[in-house]
Amino acid sequence: MGINLGIAHLRAVVALADHASFTAAAAWLQVSQPNLSRTVAEAERRLGVRLFVRTTRSVDLTGDGHEVTAYARRVLLEFDDGLEQIGRFVSGDRGTVTIACLPSIAAIFLPPYIVEFRRTHPDVSVHIKDGLRDDVVASVRDGSVDFAVVAASGRANDLMRTTISADAFVCALPPNHALAQRKSLLWTDLADEPFIAFGPESSISSHVRSALESAGVDVGPSVQAHNVAAVAGLTAAGLGITVIPELVVPMMSFANLVYLPIEPTIHRTISVVQLPGRRQSASCSAFLSVLVPPPNG
Fold first, then answer.
1. Nearest CA among 157, 140, 179, 144 for reference residue 274
2. Contact between 113 and 291 (Cβ < 8 Å)
3. Could you say which of 30, 94, 112, 261 has the lowest number of CB atoms within 10 Å?
4. 7-19 vs 33-47: helix axis angle to the nearest 10?
5. In this predicted model, what pLDDT tens digit does every residue of 273-284 receive, in sequence order?
6. In this structure, are residues 7 and 76 in contact, taking their beta carbons and an 8 Å threshold?
């Protein structure tokens, strides 16, 4: 059979044990002395034991009172700690923020924002789920992440999208390539050049394909790869040139390539994508306030 004691009973017992005076304990708890007396008496009645010996001069713990007070202290410590953790979660000082994003955004774009966020929210965990564009957008729809940071979110008209940055495209080519000595290129300079292309599931391929079509350019024989490292390695091997967003350049540094601007310049927009109507936690809202600039900022 359970004992029906509430937190108010435990606080009253511990306060009276600490102060050995109804007057002092009541003042510390900010309750009236009769209220405290009733609460302690009710705790004794529910426990079926005497906790205190009351005289006109003192209030002393009984043997049972010592034991009950020790347990009460432990319960209150855990309870107050739990309340503090709940308060920190509600205020955004504790919790988890889960973000889906493209690999290049995870590696290059997001880290400075996470550093800034952690300065003021050191106890909030940030989980990154990087993947291909369609998988990233799907994770927003199914609610497995708080939000996503994407470039070209594709068919995502059902999602809420906020643009936060833009990423220009450049041409990457080996240092010994005939075009490598130029300061910049035109899209027409890529005509008939062997080309290293990203797969259609990449956020990069649609931008490059559209730019080539707009310029009326047909590239030469192409090799297709699915990740940045593979494209970099194939390009470094002299199998073709490629076009990439500037955000991807640091991820290809191992390949010792040359990067040239292409005119006219094209950009991919980087956006935060959220599920409409989803209520974000306080910690998530705090991260978004760091990531998304204010309207006039």
1. 140
2. yes
3. 30
4. 110
5. 998 888 888 888
6. yes
